[in-house]
Amino acid sequence: MNDDRPLPKNNGLEPDDFYYNEMGFIVFTEKYHLKRGHCCKSGCKHCPYGYDKRTDSFKK
Predict the structure, then answer these.
(1) d(CA 7, CA 13)
(2) Domains of the chain: which residue ranges?
(3) β-strand partners of 20
(4) Strand ranges in 1-56 using DSSP code E only, listed in sequence order
(5) CA separation (Å) from 38 to 6, 26, 56?
(6) Which stretches of the chain score pLDDT less than 70?
(7) Each residue of 29-38: pLDDT tens digit?
């Protein structure tokens, strides 16, 4: 998504770590989650760890 909005300030995010969804919220990418190094168990859309918030378990 090509977006003219500025990066969020003071958090060390790179442009490919997130995007803005149609409602204007920041959505973290799989790349960001892998750099983070662990699952936060928030049910993130692009969670590379396979966490399912509905069942509170990991699919992978």
Answers:
(1) 7
(2) 17-58
(3) 26
(4) 18-20, 26-28, 51-52
(5) 26, 19, 15
(6) 1-3, 7-8, 10, 60
(7) 999 999 999 9
